[in-house]
Amino acid sequence: MGVRRVEGENNVLLTDEEQTWVKTVVRHLAQAGEQTEMLETVQLSLLCKGDGKVALKRLQKMNKWRTKYDLESVSIHDAFHYSNERNQQCQVMGKDKEGRETYYYDYGQFNPSLMKNDKKQKQAFMRMAFAMNDAATCDLEKIRKGITFVALLRDLSSKNVDIFVEKEMAEFYQDGYPMKLSSVCMVEPPAMIRGVMNLLSMFLKKKLRERIQMFKTKEECASQWESDVVCPALGGETEMNVLEWINENNKVRAETEASLLQQYGANFAYLLDPESAPATPSPTKHTTIL
After folding, report:
1. I want to staple 43 with a disulfide (CB 3.0 to 4.6 A). Which of 92, 97, 178, 211 is the partner?
2. Stretch 61-83: mean pLDDT
3. Which residues contact 215 (CB under 8 A, 6 or more apart)?
């Protein structure tokens, strides 16, 4: 069954199969006493293809990180600037030719010791990880397509790699936040990359390893995007403001949440406790940050 668009460019209807997945996951979460936003429930359902046990584990992990790092106590604006000043923040680029949102990061600037020894840095990193992923999954089309991640490796050295930090990060994007990592582009990999990949293969799942592509030059990698959206790091001229991108996509996310509740809230409410099921769209936690 194809995707049917509804009013608003970014709002779409769930397919019949996806509705079945959501109902299964909602029922499973309710039985475990867990409940989250409608859109986050849909994200879990689509990524886990209706596997309620897997969806529950992912949600519990996310809630554990939210509590552990007290993420609601720091604003996205403050987290971005604190992280960017000390460890460089992950950046965003225009969609690739497959229509996927794109992140890119220069690993030669990464200092893993800060992630281990600076609690505020770790909090800022996790706050931005959730904020960027929320923005990148602000509507159903983006959830289905997933994202592309570009790793700039020209200046990578052993000081930029820590197996314990990498393992925790892998847990976040493989088994935590419900977002599909559709493609990983490694650009200008140094000779040491073979050893790094051998280390990462201990905890990277086969499916993700198969999505990794190596590019000898940044120009070769940049060919996956239209020239007018290529960032300076890949030889282009277009720079995007991360905070503005998050802000705009959070507005879309709020609209999608309201649309889903309007379209499907009544269909799923009977699976929950009647007193806790939302009858009308509730205020979203994704707020304007600028």
Report:
1. 178
2. 94
3. 185, 186, 187, 188, 221
